[in-house]
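User: I'm writing a tutorial on reading structure tokens. Could you give me a worked example: one chain, its sequence, then its tokens, then a sentence or two explaining what the tokens reveal?
Assistant: Sure. Here is the example chain.
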Amino acid sequence: MAQVIRTVNDTLMSSFLYEGILFLIRSSGNFSSFNFPRAYKDLDDDKLDRIKVKLAGRNDQGAINQLGLSISNKASYGELLRELKRTSGMTSFNLNVTIRGNSIVVGSGQMMTAFQIFKADRFTGISCLELGSISSQLKLIFSREVLLTGLLGIYSSHVLSRGKEHYFLFFSPEEALNLLLSQDLKKLEKYFMVKEESSDEIGKAIERGFTTETIILELILSSKILELMMRENLDKLSLTLVKLSQEGRGTYKVYEQIPLNLLNRPYYLDLLEEYFSNPSEFSRTISRLLRPEDSVIMDAVRSMGTRGTYREADNALRALHGLYRFVTLGDVSGWYEFVREMVNSYSKLSGSNDRRERSRSMAYRRILTELGRIR
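And here are its predicted structure tokens:
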């Protein structure tokens, strides 16, 4: 039986490992015996093509050799995972962490060097807090099964690779522990369904160059996700979005860790009931107004920092920040700011001699008209 001994935490290593375990459980249909061949067979080739995170060159050569692979140490993790689709063997394992000499050892049995990506946060929460080795220079060693599980975690959590920036979406530590303790395969499948839909939405938002606040807004207001959570009878889902950057050939750095709490009834709906008789109409309207493919607000924000920056871009950005405060914190002043900046955007452009600016001013006027119709 799999022994999950270490406490789940928000380090990148822990996130990859527990994401991999949950993916294994889902593929194996079993909480106690893991079918690696089936899990690797389930890997989608199109998604593997999108995982562009590069190996760390010579620093990862030992792990490649120990896995018996013949790929280049400059290959991507997508290419490495494609090679591992031939992996076989059904096994159980543990995640016990110990120190042996100058090494942190995860698991037991046949041991091998861990890939550099698992060391991105330099053992935060492991060597410093749990093992009392604050000043030591330690190596990281995994059992073969732990290493294969961590690689599955990279696959399962990967959202998007854009240049040297890579985004991963994990279940939060609390959510991962909750799913492991539940021993409920149906619940696990439901949570994965919502997480995968969230990953798709986040990927689209990142590709369009949206800010962190806009990405969170997109996710919270997504009618697809709200409907899916209600259909699957899920009250909430806690996720963590991680932005990882590759700096040089052998170094990875975590730049952002963004908590995402999804509710089938967001907090702001209760607040809306004080002002609107149909809160769900408000959600649908705002979601439609922010739809990336035809939203003048999003176009204005995206124009910032370009040669063609819209004159009202700063107003649009302030409007989004206000809406973000209203939706995530229930701050009513944020809603007033959103409406005020829509009025300012319209006023700034309405008398323009530029045909495109006048067209945008009419778009802002239509937004104000739609907001006025919400009852």
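What the tokens reveal: The longest strand covers residues 252-263. The chain has 16 helices and ten strands.
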